[in-house]
Design a protein that fits this description.
The chain is an alpha+beta fold and about 750 residues long. The protein has 3 domains: about 10-210, 2-Layer Sandwich (Aldehyde Oxidoreductase, domain 4); about 215-285 and about 340-425, Aldehyde Oxidoreductase, domain 4, CATH 3.30.365; about 435-740, 2-Layer Sandwich (Aldehyde Oxidoreductase, domain 4), CATH 3.30.365. It is built from 18 helices and 24 strands. The termini are far apart. Strand 2 (about 60-65), helix 3 (about 75-85) and strand 3 (about 95-100) form a beta-alpha-beta unit. The strands form 6 sheets. A 7-stranded mixed β-sheet has the order 9-10-7-17-14-15-16. Strands 12-20-19-18-13 form a 5-stranded mixed β-sheet, covered by helices on one side. Strands 21-22-23-24 form a 4-stranded mixed β-sheet. The relative contact order is 0.11. The longest helix is centred in the first third of the chain and has 29 residues, at about 115-140.
């Protein structure tokens, strides 16, 4: 099929977008164009209108405008499936424009597993509203009552008859001019033929063949390459630099804006060399506490607030109870550890700017970059291009800020590529969490009273965005803070308990600049809660599965627990006691459960591990997961997300901790910040439960939450040792074995 390119001005005419490429055609970078980047979009972004989300071309194909982006999660096919189902057209006739602030409505950041649950559901409602409008128009054209008409294969036709008219004839290249109808009737899920199918992702062929354009590959005419020179210590000030130290590298230029320092060149390798060789002088700075001090630091405050999240019955008797069980759990500071370092391109002109970024929140960051440039928000245009996976704010938005400052200074397009040391050393981090839990059991061995006490950083909660490095170093004002996520959720047990209290000590600061990281807070909280539930079961002398099932009222929760247990071949713990003997390698099984955020997915994880006693090495042999996310739009996408959740969290549990001293992060390579490696990947057995008549829930986070607890519980089953601090390093395992 012929592929054609249009200028943005030609593309953006009238109420509908006309794009000349096929479903299997151009990479996304071409689809989200470069030519007339500052041109007015010529269409509405008003989310009260169908035209904000959909347009129909004269040939009957449909364009979908999504403010949510595909971060490798499969949204590019899932969004098409949701719209295709309601409009009764093939997905191959749908184009998707995503994350372009000039073309797509602001549906919020792609975070919190909200892509399908909010973004996709909104698109589906727009399609249902559009279907009503198309049938109404066709009724006039065909002279038939609307009740006798239906959509099928790009036409509105008379039910059981031959009279029909194409969507292109009804709307093609013009606006719907119809308000969104929140009550527009959706199709019966029992009749779905597109939603629920494992349709292939359209971006995979180009990615597998190396033709896909990531932000790292993106180029503009006259573009310069840049490397930012980072200080040797957090909060250090730039005193001086020696431009003569890179005189032997031709074509390089130093840009300094207060403490922001960078090298730019037309040649990328020249910029890399010069950034390494430039001699600089910085002030001394020792503003950090060091990673080994974080756990004790968490208790010291100052605290901005002490908040009670759950208060049911009374837990007053716990304080003086000699029979209460108590345990503390700690989760460390962690990096997003994106495999590919962050990158961005900016082209800043006198009266407008265009930025190409892999950001999860292109609309959110318009204001930040506009403030940096002194431009109106609408004059700053962000275009999403794929980058390395982030699962929370990594360095993407900082790299874009770097590029913005440099492009403004040089009056040329600038591409900024971070290094591995930049990414691990300077990305905003997942915050540390400390939890203490105490509980008592009644005479029958059920939970009677439960109290969770948390120490969590509040440093960036509920503010506009994480403070960006470039304007911070340049001494420029900026809106500060992004929510680190709802990190206090799932701190209470999901099982029946008459007396429960959960309270948080919100710490005023954080050890390092924090941001949201995959399943914010829930991994650590579920690790603590489900590990402690296991401790209670052992104390009561009850099998861990039985202990959970007898006090779990939600039938969907019961189902996932039973399915995960069946997949792993669960046997009551009394049958596995012999595995706690002193053999050199001990094997065991553990499980954990979460009702994610207490109102979303149901997930149960069962795990089989082997523990080498002499070294303290843990090997995860097998993971069984039962996952219920309501209606599944594309089961292949869901399975891929669940697999990724499990593997990434095994990595975070066994290996990952950001190490830092009084001045800087010291774990800045793959040796000092280790990840799970291919030989360590376990067998994965996943049962997906499709609830076609339930709302769709996101699959990008929930399966992370029970992983650490299931792993710790399996180690206990194997050895009798409790692990309460992540990561489960060899040294910590050996220490726990010595105490068991």
């Amino acid at each position: 099929m012929e592929t054609r390119l249009y200028t943005r001005r030609a593309v953006l005419k009238g109420g509908a977008l006309v794009v000349g490429f096929s479903f299997a055609g151009l990479p996304l970078a071409s689809a989200q164009g470069v030519a007339q980047a500052g041109a007015a979009p010529g269409r509405t972004l008003d989310q009260r209108q169908v035209d904000a989300f959909l347009a129909v071309r004269r040939n009957g194909s449909v364009i979908v405008y999504s403010g949510k982006v595909d971060l490798g999660t499969g949204h590019r096919i899932a969004m098409r499936q949701m719209v295709a189902e309601e409009l009764a057209i093939p997905v191959t006739r749908i184009e998707l424009i995503e994350g372009d602030t000039a073309l797509t409505p602001d549906q919020g950041s792609t975070a919190g597993s909200s892509g399908v649950t909010r973004g996709g559901v909104q698109l589906r409602q727009a399609a249902a509203t559009a279907r009503e409008a198309l049938i109404a128009r066709a009724s006039t054209h065909l002279g038939r009552p609307a009740a006798e008409l239906e959509l099928a294969d790009g036409y509105v036709r008379a039910t059981g008859g031959s009279a029909r008219i194409s969507l292109g004839e009804l709307v093609g290249d013009s606006a719907f001019d119809v308000p969104m109808n929140p009550k527009a009737r959706l199709k019966d899920p029992g009749t779905y033929t597109v939603v629920g199918q494992p349709l292939p992702r359209p971006d995979i062929p180009a990615k597998l063949t190396g033709r896909y354009v990531y932000v790292h590959d993106f180029k503009l005419p006259g573009m310069m390459h840049a490397r930012v020179v980072r200080p040797p210590a957090v909060a250090a000030q730039l005193l001086d630099y020696d431009a003569g130290s890179i005189a032997q590298i031709p074509g390089t230029q130093v840009v300094r804006i207060k403490d922001f320092l960078a090298i730019v060149s037309d040649d990328e390798w020249a910029a890399v060399r010069a950034a390494r060789e430039l001699k600089t002088r910085w002030s001394e700075a020792a503003t950090l506490i060091g990673h080994t001090a974080v756990r004790a630091w968490a208790r010291s405050g100052p605290f901005t607030n002490n908040e009670v999240l759950v208060n049911k019955g009374t837990t007053a008797a716990l304080a003086g109870s000699a029979h209460a069980l108590r345990a503390a759990y700690y989760w460390p500071v962690q990096s997003h550890a994106s495999i590919g370092p962050s990158c961005a391109v900016a082209d800043v002109q006198a009266d407008h700017a265009t930025i190409w970024s892999a950001s999860q929140g292109t609309h959110r960051y318009q204001s930040a970059y506009a403030q940096m440039l002194g431009l109106p928000r609408e004059k700053v245009h962000l275009i999403y291009l794929d980058g390395a996976g982030c699962y929370g704010m990594n360095g993407h938005d900082d790299a874009a800020a770097d590029a913005v400052l440099l492009s403004r200074a040089l009056k040329r397009p600038v591409r900024v590529q971070w290094t591995r040391e930049d990414e691990l050393g300077w990305d905003p981090k997942g915050p540390p969490q400390l939890l203490e839990i105490s509980a008592t059991l009644d005479a029958a061995g059920h939970i009677d009273a439960w109290e969770t006490e948390m120490w969590l950083p509040t440093a960036t909660a509920n503010l506009a965005h994480v403070p960006l490095l470039a304007p911070q170093a340049a001494g420029m004002p900026q809106p500060v803070g992004e929510s680190t996520g709802l990190i206090a959720q799932n701190g209470d047990p999901p099982y029946r308990a008459p007396n429960v209290k959960v309270h948080v000590h919100w710490i005023a600061q954080a050890p390092l600049r924090p941001s949201n990281i995959r399943a914010p807070g829930k991994v650590a909280n579920c690790f603590a809660v489900e590990s402690f539930v296991d401790e209670l079961a052992a104390h009561a002398g009850v099998d861990p599965l039985e202990f959970r099932l007898r006090d779990l009222a939600d039938p969907r929760g019961v189902e996932v627990l039973k399915k995960a247990a069946a997949l792993i071949g669960w046997q009551p713990r009394s049958a596995s006691e012999s595995r706690r003997a002193t053999q050199p390698v001990a094997t065991g099984r553990g499980l954990a459960y979460v009702h994610y955020k207490n109102n979303e997915n149901y997930v149960a994880i069962a795990m089989e591990v082997a523990v080498e006693r002499s070294s303290g090495k843990i090997s995860v042999k097998r993971v069984a997961c039962a996952h219920d996310c309501g209606l599944m739009i594309n089961p292949d996408n869901v399975r891929a997300q669940v697999e990724g959740c499990i593997l990434q969290t095994i990595s975070r549990t066994l290996y990952e901790e950001t190490e830092f001293d009084r001045s800087r992060v010291t774990s800045v390579d793959w040796s000092s910040y280790r990840l799970l490696r291919f030989p360590d990947v376990p067998q994965l057995d996943i049962a997906l439960i499709d609830r076609r008549h339930e709302p769709p829930l996101g699959a990008g986070e929930a399966a992370t939450a029970p992983v650490a607890a299931a792993l710790a519980n399996a180690v206990f089953d194997a050895t009798g040792a409790r692990l309460r601090e992540a990561p489960f390093t060899h040294e910590r395992v050996r220490a726990a074995l010595a105490q068991a």
